Amino acid sequence: MKKNVSLKDIANQVGVSVSLVSYVLNGHEKKMRVGEEIARQIKATAERLHYRPNQIAKSLKSKKSQTIGLIVGEIHYRFTTGIVRAIELEAKKNGYTVVIGNSHEDLGSLHELIHVLINRQVDGLIIVAAENAESEIEYLKKKEIPFVLIDRNFPSVESNFIGIDNYRIAYRAVEYLIRQGCRRIAFVNYDTTFFHLKERSRGYLEALKGQEPLLREIRKPFYEQDVAAAVRELTSPGVGCDAIFFATDTLAITGLKNLISLRVNIPEDVAFMSFDEAEAFALFQVPVTHYRQPLEEIGVSAVGMLLEEIQDGKEDGRDVKPKKWRQLYLDSTLVAGKSCRE
Amino acid sequence: MKKNVSLKDIANQVGVSVSLVSYVLNGHEKKMRVGEEIARQIKATAERLHYRPNQIAKSLKSKKSQTIGLIVGEIHYRFTTGIVRAIELEAKKNGYTVVIGNSHEDLGSLHELIHVLINRQVDGLIIVAAENAESEIEYLKKKEIPFVLIDRNFPSVESNFIGIDNYRIAYRAVEYLIRQGCRRIAFVNYDTTFFHLKERSRGYLEALKGQEPLLREIRKPFYEQDVAAAVRELTSPGVGCDAIFFATDTLAITGLKNLISLRVNIPEDVAFMSFDEAEAFALFQVPVTHYRQPLEEIGVSAVGMLLEEIQDGKEDGRDVKPKKWRQLYLDSTLVAGKSCRE
DNA sequence: CTGAAAGCGCTTACAG
DNA sequence: CTGAAAGCGCTTACAG
Fold it and tell me: Which of A71, B60, B251, B304 is the most exposed place for a label (fewest CB within 10 A)?
């Protein structure tokens, strides 16, 4: 790899000191009252040599990297692809670059990534946490590293958070199904310790209003076979289930595949509802009724909150004002299709 | 943000010099014959203080960051999600971290990302290039920055490359359609300067063997309306088209949506073939016939090739042996469904 | 207006 | 066996 041109190279060319070059190239020429002609020469030479500052050196000195780390649960989730772009654009607008890390929903990888990113001096983190990540969050708090959780939070650990009100949306979805005339509504969720997912079950259960619950919990590692089994069971004659509500897009798609191969008619035999959106719904013969998270808004707000956090961190020094954690709950919107007998 | 513990902190605690600490913590205690007891103490103290080396400082000194940059065309492509995991795992196996950048298929963003990543001292780049990126590639060559292109290459610029043989696969796909009895095969591709896509058209055209070509070129920015128009036209009475072959997964999905809403029966009315795989195919009533790229293998090979490149770069110094660029063409496999009257 | 110097946290040849 | 010193490329208070 060819050597990059450094401040020193420019200084030598022009015949001035490195400091002057630094001042001029950082736009401090006015403040430092650098000679006009010299400033001109420095800029011209920098241009001619295609000077690019070494960010590594810059951030070693400044303790700031103008980079934010984004750790996602899995790169191919609809949630991820929806949020990445918003975060990147918003970050760029503010002069930050985004570095993405992929935890594959694994706590060990999350731990690893957090440290890798901190050691590379990201200025802050936006995190879609993995299951049981409480201690990782505590660590970030202890080290006073600016961070914002999105999508998933932990009731036992106060922190900055942006996401949706899972309880409320699940509740409203069931109300909607009831209004469509469904009288035996099943809910297919993961068997999980994730708070945001448990909130969805809670919303489902409370909205049932006397209907007998049909909650089916799927083991994540075996989700394909478990969903298949659940769908088969729920649509079998004795059960009388007339609506299946899936707690995530992955579950919904897997469920739909199984419903298709079982030749279940939607919505005639059972109504179908998904908590999340999925690209794949477009190829199903019936428009699928689902809720849509405000991914764009989550991303933009997360960057905003994080940058404020970074800003605060800079100012404080040794102040004693107690830390204020902020939570922002946004709303999902109903996308009414024709899969619930609308 | 709390100050991180540095080598100096450890040195002070133990009462030795920073150099000793550095030697021990980097595993050079044997080579440097550091006193056993001292080494023990240093390690214990590092442990106790949860020492984590500052990678920024490390790479400023070593000129190596143990990071590779991956620039993708668009984060939500099937190609991207398929390749990211393989690249991350393979990189990790070799002690490298992957930083992902998203060009959104935009040449300006690609340019920007290349520089951002270089300035952050990535040791090398794996790039899914945007259209007309020749000059960016030339720049990398000139600067002797290790890089490997994947998926897309430029016939006018020699470089390292790993991808599939687009011509050959398109050719074989058409042969397959002919064997299924299709006599009027259309091909829907982008109107593009991308070599890999033009190769697909070339493969299609040459395999037709006397059939009159039905090549439809879609303007990328208007692909939804253009695909809709093309599908409508191709399936209209006079045309007699009995098979549509789509050049990418995005085109295929958009095409399929339109075929569905036009109530075209697949494969009875027209056969349907896709050059690439898509998750969404799973929800279509008929298993979709398509080719599958060896994404895993592309990712693993790309990391391997890049690391060799990085290694070479280190060794050379001022040698004169001319640069050898390597190309690796892998094969896609046919996934025969039932959308081509199989 | 300009330059010499210190320092960010690390590595590593060199001297002892 | 161990420490002082130089240097990676930059920033910035300080002196003149």
Answer: B304
| pLDDT value, residue A97 | 84
- Helix intervals (H) in chain A: 7-14, 18-25, 36-48, 55-62, 78-93, 107-119, 134-142, 166-179, 195-207, 223-234, 249-261, 295-316
Q: Which of B75, B81, B283 sits opposite A280 (nearest CB)?
A: B283
Q: Tell me, which fold does domain A64-164+296-332 have in CATH?
A: Rossmann fold (3.40.50)
Beta bridge partners of A70: A100, A126
Query: Is pLDDT above 80 for B342?
Result: no
Asked if B120 and A145 come within 8 Å (Cβ–Cβ), the reply is no
Sorted by sequence, the CB contacts under 8 Å of residue B68 that are 6+ apart come out as B91, B96, B97, B98, B99, B122, B123, B124, B125, B126, B303, B306
Q: What is the pLDDT of residues A228-277, one digit of tens each?
A: 999 999 999 889 899 999 999 999 999 999 999 899 999 999 999 999 99
So where are chain B's domains?
7-53, 64-164+296-332, 166-293
Query: In the CATH scheme, what architecture does the domain A7-53 have?
Result: Orthogonal Bundle (1.10)
**Tens-place pLDDT, residues B157-205:** 999 999 999 999 999 999 999 999 999 999 999 999 999 999 999 999 9
Say if residues B25 and B43 touch (Cβ distance below 8 Å).
yes
Q: With an 8 Å Cβ cutoff, is A143 touching chain B?
A: yes
| CB < 7 A to strand C: residues 17-46, chain B | 18-19, 22-23, 25-26
Assess whether the region A7-53 and the region A64-164+296-332 belong to the same CATH fold. no
Strands A271-274 and A214-218 come out as unpaired
The backbone region for A50, taken as left when phi is positive above 0, alpha when psi lies in -120 to 50, beta otherwise, is left
